[in-house]
Design goal:
Elements: H1 2-23, E1 30-35, H2 45-52, H3 55-58, E2 61-66, H4 75-81, E3 85-89, H5 93-98, E4 103-108, E5 115-120, E6 135-137, H6 143-151, E7 160-162, H7 169-172, E8 178-182, H8 186-192, E9 197-200, E10 213-217, H9 218-223, H10 225-244, H11 246-257, H12 263-277, H13 289-301, H14 325-446, H15 450-465, H16 472-485, H17 497-505, H18 513-518, H19 523-561, H20 564-569, E11 572-574, H21 576-586, E12 594-600, E13 606-608, H22 610-628, E14 632-641, E15 644-651, H23 681-691, E16 695-699, E17 705-712
Parallel strand pairs: 1-2, 1-3, 6-7, 6-8, 12-14
Antiparallel strand pairs: 3-10, 4-10, 5-8, 5-9, 11-13, 14-15, 15-17, 16-17
Length: 716
């Protein structure tokens, strides 16, 4: 009886000291922080309810809720920096996950995003397509709106994008034509101001994103799985309570958290959230992996994410499957033990056999030693012969390289003369402006009054913004349209100075603001000054472009001629696209009648001798151009066929007859007339490629000839 009593007491002590502390938070609470993505408002009602109703405390959590005044900026870094951090984000979480941030979405609150685009009901925007050319404010990271516009055929470049100031008055006062916001909050401001509006939701185009999602880090889930589960359950419980007691929680937010929004606005926000959260029809916090895949597909169409990214670990599973790793580990240990026992037994049996084999090896080694000495002498002789052949081949390559440069000399002179002529001409015009016109321009500008000065800056800004050259037909059409539009303005005579300067400066693009420019008594002087400045700016641009072109030609020539790295180290990593572009730059003058098709399907690099490979490309290009008589289509195709990099040169020439296809790689075999070639080009190409463990082949082509070079990649 006494022994039984002692056992019972020990059980109770063990239960109290070691079991209960891990089951119930009776010895304290764990400190966690929740970062909101905006100001305190009903948008985050569930978290306030969970805190104030004691749901977090029951779960053993001491939660601090922090509002944000700058949106989601910086929240992801705060959450992933340390454990105990949680945040409220949106669909950008999938982008952050792909970018390398270890974020995990715990639950979805809004089953449908509240993001909409507002217009004035009585404005000239009657459909989403009327937005082109209009002033639009888009909230940062509201990608569902951008996807909606793209699906409707509207690019961001088609809009006048303005920085979002989060002030509904910008739309009400007409400072902007369209305004992105939430249907749960901005609609209240518009109704309160009796402002007639129209709201377009991306859902009408099939773009259905989630709304607010709360998330944490992989480290938090890994190190504190029970705390994550408790925080999630308490938060969702708070959301369920908040949506069922909206007036109570609205009073709580106004009295304890923020009086920035009146109770009326908080209740309006709650009513608008109800159909978006759907807490009656859908389990609170539910999220479908298929919806996240839909979001991934939309981001792919926007060019912001690859298709079908790996979502493993991104979506939190509150009830993960049972871990059977211990069974696998036990089985592995058992198998390992059996292998060890077998190895010990095998070693014992093999020892005797090894001793007998050792004697035979000693005898055979002596025989091989004598054979090896003979092979070393023979190998040295072969190395000397190979060295002599390599030197002869290098001399032949250098000779062909100089011959190519001789052929390209006239073309290189033309390629340099054209930009240099443009530089000289533009410099002369710029010098004339600085020496003879600049002083008059400055005196004219200084003499402008305040209004004329404003007009001058307006026209100058438009002129410098778009320096597009107008063809004669286009210019005449614009003049006729301007003459018809401004018939009542005497200054806009079809053949007058004003008309010519309005077109020359680009002032016609100002639209109705052009009348304001023409109202000035000094309108002609304003246009003349802008025309002079715009002309000088254009000359500067021409000099810049021409200098860059000349520099590009010289760099290409230098890159072709000099390669100290290859000379010093032999084989190196070769950038095939760069080398091919360099050679095409040198051949530019000979390609005026040739349509170059570049099909670069990979940017992987090969390993080889850059200088020798360039000779291969030059031989193949020369043969292709001569086969086409320097007129036709030349395709250069680079692709990755594991483990090879395949470079193909395809021309639209006369092709090669079947009767000689087996001889084209033979030395001294040529189809060119006497004096046209020695017949060594393709033979040299084959030897160079073979030295680099590659191969060159003549492949079938629909028209013309296709030579393909297979080279091992640098990573092989």
């Amino acid at each position: 009886m006494g022994r039984s009593s002692i056992s019972i007491r020990f059980y109770y002590v063990f239960l109290v000291c070691f079991v209960l502390p891990f089951q119930f938070p009776i010895f304290g609470t764990e400190k966690v922080t929740l970062h909101l993505k905006w100001f305190h408002q009903f948008q985050f009602a569930g978290y306030y309810a969970a805190l104030e109703k004691g749901y977090y405390q029951e779960a053993g959590l001491d939660v601090e809720i922090l509002e944000s005044t700058v949106g989601i900026k910086g929240i992801h870094e705060k959450v992933t920096r340390s454990t105990g951090q949680y945040g409220v984000g949106s669909n950008e979480l999938i982008q952050e996950r792909y970018a390398g941030k270890p974020v995990v979405v715990l639950a979805v609150i809004f089953q449908h995003s509240p993001s909409v685009l507002y217009f004035k009901k009585s404005s000239n925007i009657q459909s989403i397509h009327d937005l082109v050319g209009k002033r639009v404010m888009l909230t940062p990271r509201m990608d569902e709106i951008v996807a909606y516009l793209k699906k409707e055929g509207i690019k961001l470049s088609d809009l006048q994008l303005l920085e979002h100031r989060f002030r509904p008055d910008d739309l009400i006062q007409g400072r902007v034509d369209a305004y992105s916001g939430y249907s749960t909050s901005q609609a209240f401001d518009f109704q309160k101001a009796n402002f007639p509006y129209i709201a377009y939701s991306p859902r009408v185009a099939g773009i259905d994103f989630y709304g607010d999602n709360f998330f944490t880090s992989e480290a938090e889930i890994r190190e504190h799985p029970e705390r994550v589960k408790a925080f999630r359950e308490a938060s969702l419980r708070g959301w369920q309570y908040a949506m069922n007691h909206q007036e109570e929680i609205a009073d709580l937010i106004y009295e304890k958290y923020s009086q920035r929004s009146p109770k009326e606005r908080l209740l309006f926000e709650a009513a608008q959230m109800t159909p978006l959260i759907q807490h009656v029809l859908v389990e609170m916090g539910y999220m479908n992996p298929g919806r996240w895949k839909h979001i991934n597909d939309v981001y792919f169409e926007l060019g912001m994410l690859p298709r079908n990214i790996n979502l493993k670990g991104f979506i939190y599973d509150p009830n993960p499957p049972t871990n059977y790793d211990w069974i696998y580990y036990s089985f592995g240990i058992l198998v390992f033990s059996l292998v060890i026992i077998w190895l010990v037994q095998w070693r014992r049996l093999n020892k005797q056999y090894s001793e007998n084999l050792k004697k035979q090896v000693e005898v055979r080694t002596e025989e091989l030693k004598q054979s090896n000495e003979y092979l070393q002498v023979l190998n040295q002789s072969l190395l000397n012969t190979l060295k002599e052949l390599t030197e002869a081949q290098d001399r032949l390559l250098a000779s062909e390289k100089l011959a190519v440069l001789g052929q390209l000399a006239a073309g290189m002179a033309h390629e340099l003369n054209t930009p240099l002529g443009a530089i000289v001409s533009s410099n002369s015009s710029l010098s004339d402006f600085l020496n003879h016109k600049l002083k008059k321009v400055i005196e004219t500008i200084v003499g402008f009054n305040k209004d004329d000065s404003f007009r001058f800056h307006k026209v100058l800004e438009e002129s410098l913004k778009n320096q597009t050259f107008l063809e004669g037909k286009t210019e005449r059409l614009i003049k006729k349209e301007l003459a018809a539009k401004y018939t009542k303005i005497e200054k806009m005579d079809l053949y007058g100075d004003h008309m010519q300067l309005v077109v020359e400066t680009g002032a016609f693009r100002l639209g109705d603001e052009l009348i304001y420019i023409l109202e000035s008594d000094h309108s002609l002087e304003i246009l003349e000054v802008v025309a002079n400045i715009s002309s000088a700016y254009r000359c500067n641009q021409i000099i810049s472009v021409a200098s860059e072109k000349a520099t590009h030609v010289i760099k290409a020539l230098k890159s072709y001629l000099v390669s100290e790295k290859d000379i010093l180290s032999g084989d190196t990593v070769v950038d095939l696209i760069f080398e091919m572009e360099t050679i095409l730059s040198l051949y530019h003058y000979n390609l005026t009648k040739v349509n170059i098709v570049k099909t670069y399907l990979t940017d992987k690099r090969c390993r080889g001798n850059r200088d020798k490979l360039n000779q291969v490309w030059i031989n193949l290009l020369n043969n292709a151009l001569q086969a086409m008589s320097y007129s036709g289509t030349l395709e250069i195709k680079i692709q990755w066929i594991d483990p090879w990099i395949k470079v193909s040169v395809i021309d639209s020439g006369v092709g090669i007859s079947d009767s000689i296809k087996g001889k084209i790689f033979d030395p001294f075999f040529t189809t060119k007339p006497d004096g046209g070639g020695m017949g060594l080009g393709l033979d040299i190409c084959k030897k160079i490629v073979s030295q680099m463990d590659g191969k060159i082949e003549l492949e079938e082509a629909q028209k013309g000839t296709c030579f393909s070079v297979w080279l091992p990649s640098a990573n092989s």
